[in-house]
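Fig. S4 source data, part A: sequence.
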Amino acid sequence: MARWDPWSDLFTLQNELARWVNDTYNGTPLLTAGGARGGTAVVPTTYLPLDIRQTDREFVIEASIPGFSSEEVEITADQGVLTLRGERKVDETQAEGTYLRRERARYSFVRQMTLPSDVKEEEIRATFQNGVLTVHLPRVEAPAPRRIPVGIEAEAAPQVLEAGTAKS
């Protein structure tokens, strides 16, 4: 006979309610992907928070994506839209034992943003280190303002009209 633990039921209820609220109101869409056994599985898509900095030379986007490798991240720039996409797959191989709880599920993220018009799309580069993705978006150099000298207009020499002498 197993002993009833009310805390276990409470935590299970709390987890189920949190999952339901997140799925319903968090705006995180669900993707359908091929499951491990050939069926379809629902893969939650996670919202990817970003930090965006601007300097005179570039925009820098930083995103924390722990648990991903650089091979699982895809970055594309097409017609003024930057897309950051990734999918982490859970290792289905099990060395030994049985899972009592498994919360690290397969999930993905997709984030798109419109690029400013002064970004050089062909020179975008990205690095991935310690779970932080950094994307560098070089900016087109703004043309320096051209100084136009202001001169003094040459004054026309005053004309002197001589009055003729009148003969009477």
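Fig. S4 source data, part B ends here. The beta strands are 30-34, 40-46, 51-54, 58-64, 73-78, 81-88, 107-114, 125-129, 132-138.
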